[in-house]
Write a structure and sequence with these properties.
Layout lengths: L14 H22 L6 H4 L1 E8 L5 H10 L6 E5 L9 E7 L4 H20 L7 E2 L5 H11 L8 H19 L17 H10 E2 L3 E9 L1 H29 L2 H24 L6 H31 L5 H11 L1 H21 L5 H32 L7 E2 L6 E2 L3
Parallel strand pairs: 4-5
Antiparallel strand pairs: 1-3, 1-6, 2-3, 7-8
């Protein structure tokens, strides 16, 4: 399918504008890095504690923030998490960077956040447990001790099964929060069972859904490995393209991809998006995507070299880009729409990941014809060649201008 036929755009004639645009974006991103003191790394790379808290209604963010400050956790970050289906932000993620060394510091961070939550939002009734934080074992222990169904020696297995049903109802049907113990009647729990639970439990308006702890050494190692794996990917692609075409093509493609990553990271700094492991995965995805688009253009250049031997090299490159323009718009356009929907509707958890993909696809597509191809043309002009030297993968023949 072709969207455009007989396109005749002079892409290489606009190369200086492409370079100027890229330089401007790189400078703006670099200034942002310097002003903000580097990128904003997540707990994955810094080390610390992440606690996800779900509320029955809208989270009292201001109350949480003031409560954390009162408890000496003013440096913690509160980030709302949007629900993909309903777009409601009834969940927040509280992040606290680790202070100190060792496992004790990690546990202290977790305990400090939990204590601050209970101090701010209320700890419930004295002597009772929070039903929304209780596990099946705690619930079954209460039921076995009180034995509201008068089961006697057969109580253990029956109450253990009942406790699992109650927890499943809380976590799945009530999304982690039971606001009233009377709601448990929908599981088949009798009035006597609910009364026994009411004597031992209270219901809060929030529940802790997840706790993640990452040590600083692990975070530092993850950061180092993320840099290395990106460099390894670029190095492997350089070798592949140098073997398939010629080293100048590999160098141009790798520089273009490196340019994509730097611009994307610069925009992350400008918009203060967090760098996490999922973002690294997105960056590696855009590296492969951008490289694939560049190789398509290079392949067409090699084919046209055989058909247009008497044409100047920049004309061959223009023709090649124009011939692949429909394919580029179709593939990049459809992929861009997909990740744009993910960015707009994927919620806060996927926001940084999808942002990297949105920017990466745009910049990666642009760099294929705006950076990689002009670099090859510039090299050939500097070498004084009318046409590029292209090495075939099969026969290894070199084609030069006749």
């Amino acid at each position: 399918m072709e969207l455009f036929k007989q396109v005749d755009l002079d892409w290489m004639g606009k190369a200086k504008y492409f370079f100027a645009l890229s330089l401007t974006l790189l400078v703006i991103g670099g200034v942002s890095w310097i002003v903000k003191g580097g990128l904003y790394y997540g707990i994955d790379f810094k080390g610390g504690t992440l606690v996800n808290v779900r509320f029955a209604g809208a989270p009292p963010v201001d109350q949480l923030r003031s409560g954390l400050v009162k408890e000496g956790l003013g440096e913690s970050v509160i980030q709302p998490i949007s629900d993909i289906a309903t777009r409601n932000s009834n969940e927040v993620m509280i992040g606290l960077e680790q202070k100190g060394q060792g496992l004790e510091a990690l546990d202290a961070g977790k305990t400090a956040i939990l204590n601050a939550l209970h101090a701010t939002l209320g700890s419930g009734e004295a002597g009772k447990q929070d039903f929304n934080a209780a596990g099946p074992a705690a619930i079954s222990d209460v039921l076995i001790r009180k034995d509201p169904l008068s089961l006697g020696t057969a109580a253990a297995d029956r109450y253990a099964q009942l406790a699992r049903q109650l927890v499943a109802f809380r976590d799945k049907d009530s999304r982690g929060i039971v606001t009233n113990l009377d709601n448990l009647s929908s599981t088949g729990a009798s009035t006597a069972v609910i009364a026994a639970l009411r004597d031992a439990f209270y219901t809060s308006n929030f529940a802790i859904t997840n706790v993640e702890i990452v040590g600083p050494k692990v975070g530092s190692e993850l950061r180092r490995q993320a840099v290395l794996v990106t460099l390894y990917a670029l190095g492997g692609m350089l070798v592949y393209i140098a073997f398939r075409f010629e080293w100048v093509y590999g160098a141009a493609a790798v520089l273009a991809v490196f340019h994509d990553v730097l611009i994307t990271l610069g925009l992350f700094s400008i918009f203060h998006f967090e760098i996490s492991l999922t973002v690294i995965a997105a960056l590696l995805t855009l590296v492969g995507y951008s490289m694939n688009d560049t190789i398509v253009i290079f392949d067409r250049i090699r084919e046209n070299m055989r058909l247009m031997r008497r044409e100047p090299f920049h004309a061959i490159v223009n023709r090649s880009i124009n011939q692949t323009l429909s394919r580029t718009i179709l593939t990049s356009g459809l992929t861009f729409l997909t990740v744009l929907v993910l960015f707009l509707m994927g919620g806060q958890v996927l926001r940084a990941f999808s942002f990297a993909l949105v920017i990466g696809i745009m910049v990666g597509t642009y760099s294929s014809f705006g950076i990689a191809a002009p670099l090859v043309v510039a090299w050939n002009q500097w070498k004084g060649q009318g046409a590029a030297v292209v090495t075939g993968t099969a026969a290894g023949n070199k084609l030069r201008k006749s």
